[in-house]
Amino acid sequence: MLLTIGPDNTTGYRKHLEGIAKIAQTDAKYLKIRTRNSEALAEIQSYNPKLTIIGGRNWIIRNQDILDHISGEKGILYCSPAAQAEISGEEIRNLNIYLKLLETNKINYLFTGSKDLAATINRETVIYMPAPLTEKQYVPPKEKMNNDVALLSNHSRHKNIINAMAAFSKSKADKLILNGGLKENIDFLHNVCSKSRFENYGLLNDGKFTETLQKSKLLLHPSHSEGFCYTVFESFLNATPAIVTKAVDWFYNDLLTLQNPVDIEEIKEKIDTLVDMNSERYISLVKNCQTQARIAAKENNRIVLKTLKELL
To answer: Of 217 and 10, which is predicted with more confidence?
Structure first.
């Protein structure tokens, strides 16, 4: 049996772990963790897993002792690429902890969502495990009746929020739609554009998140670093193009991919290009985004299934 363990939230990190269990062609389960401590150990043991993949975040760092009490082989999934690890600070510390657990045989594998990081560490027990993608229904492209820009990220340091806000303030777009955000970022937005030009929905549930994407003319996501980036994938799934950086390494389009994520003028020009785009070109662009998303989904799922078959 395959058991994957991760947080009870709506992050891409949870989707990565849950997706591994969903697409596995074997007996598999995703176990949601709802407590800070090791109360879940008894349930983990009850499944008697052949392979357990645990989300590499603070829960397992706090509860490393449970590794000695889980049967079968064990691995930790670490999603961040090297750049994101450095920017966050905490993530590079965590990576070193997981490598130490590997060296001391507390775990059998370290799985990473970053192909480059796996190649850099270059050990047989460090295995590339990309984000599996289970969504299959793509919304048909259509003309959008507004020029609203969605900025739907968790406002982590690597998301490049201030440059995105500054670029929007100079653009022709009508309104910026936010899903919450740090107070200092919202204060900055107040200082660079009028209150009538942005709306803060706060934390969005899955339904509202999808609805917001479908209604928006574009998603603005100029992050410095990404693992896979489910937000961009879901934007394409919902027929909305996204302005991105090369950090989203499975997608490229001259109209949407930034060459310099800190160039406010470049970001602004790409926003304006989409605002000015006619319906025919816009729909063609969305179709290109969805085609690349399908290719990425197929390739990621192929790698995950191949890896699981080898280990199980």
So the answer is: 217
